[in-house]
Amino acid sequence: MLNNPFLNAQEQLRQAASLLEPQYGDKKVFRAVIQTLMTPQNLVQVELSIKMDNGKTQKFKAFRSQHNDARGPFKGGIRYHYNVSVEEVKALSMWMTWKCATTGIPYGGAKGGIIVDPSKLSKGEVERLSRAYARAITPYIGVWKDVPAPDVNTTGQIMAWMLDEYEKIIGRHEPGVFTGKPLEIGGSLGREEATGKGGVRVLEQLAKKLQLKPAQTTVAVQGLGNVGYWFAKLAAELGFNVVAVSDSRGGIVSNDMKKGLNIDAVMAHKKKMGSIAGFTGTRSVSNAELLELPVDVLVPAALENVITAENAGRVHAKAIVEMANGPVTPEADEILWKKHILSVPDVLSNAGGVTVSYFEWVQNLYGYAWTKKEVFAKLEPLMVDAFNHMWDMHEKKNVHLRLAAYVNAVKRVVDAMILRGR
Ligand code: NAD
What we know:
By secondary structure, the protein is an alpha/beta fold. It has 2 domains: 41-181, 3-Layer(aba) Sandwich (Rossmann fold); 192-349, Rossmann fold. It contains 14 helices and 12 strands. The strands form 2 sheets. It has a 7-stranded mixed beta sheet, sandwiched between helices. A 5-stranded mixed beta sheet has the order 1-2-4-3-5. α10 (330-338) links the parallel β11 and β12 (342-344). α6 (191-209) packs across α12 (352-366). The longest helix has 26 residues, at 372-397. It is globular and about 60 Å long. The chain starts with a helix and ends with a helix. The relative contact order is 0.13. Residues 195, 222-228, 246-248, 287, 301-303, 323-325, 350, 353 line the site of nicotinamide-adenine-dinucleotide.
């Protein structure tokens, strides 16, 4: 894999473009559009100065990359991490363009970030930093312009501070400019479980295609955070056999592979004992071992780059549902494809989150407050349609699922660009 995530993103776009090109009569226009899509439309880079609790001023580098808005306003989270870089933010913004196009929601792609370790800041310092970031990006965002959201290490509280700062500047309410807000200030019901909920719809469709019956399908989930917990719990409720789960300290696997785990009981055990290890009827496995278990479906739901050229050859699952962002490297993709292991890409599997963010924006624009039932009734068919669209392309072109999803997504964006005459 290339070390630079942005070069990886560009290479993925090149691959999708080469499959698409034969469909376009005017090659010159098509190639010009692809060339435009190779780089973000806008890149905001700023240095934020914050008064720290000790009275000194500290500077933080911050970014907002707006990749493409041909299909609608830019959309994407804001990440607080010491590893944030301009190349990472640019790559993530391009992936957001494809994610929104994959599900068909009317957004483009963006991503923001600050180079900071928020665990080293006090609450007051995080608030001042978040407000400073909101002030810096205010000229570039708006309900019909760019709609940020939480990402790694950013929360509903941080969105609340940013919204407050933004509204102070523009002098009116405009809650739809940020999504992932707390319910009290315009957040949407169902957002918490949305990503897991969308993911299990994908799992169900995949099981149908592979002719796997839920009760006979074993599933291993890496990471029991927001995404992994809801995915594991909802999959178990649908009758799938969730036989292994893990968190940052390691995992457990059921002693009886025919008997799935009770996810809420595992969480209760973790709360009581401080770890999932030792849960009745299970043995401990490392996070590396969990990825190599002989299960039907493997679900990486924690970190990026966990399935690589090094371990892909040892994956025994029939299929992978990528709930984390970027858990499978491009080299691993090729190895898995040769081994006939299908990997449903993150741009589809975890798109339930951004889709409910879109519903939050719609509710804010109209002043509605939908029930959870209404939210899920809208989410579920959208995920199923997106899955089938990807599957059809996978069969038509005989390419792996990520490339199939990318071909569909890039086509939607290219068509919007051509219609706009860009
Ligand atoms: P989270 O912080 O709630 O949970 C992360 C989980 O991963 C925790 O249980 C943690 O213990 C576990 N973990 C950490 N290091 C680990 C390791 N080395 N091995 C195994 N487990 C480890 O985060 P989240 O919101 O659930 O996000 C998880 C992934 O899903 C991320 O890649 C994120 O970008 C992606 N994602 C999240 C959403 C969302 O709606 N939250 C939407 C789309 C994508």
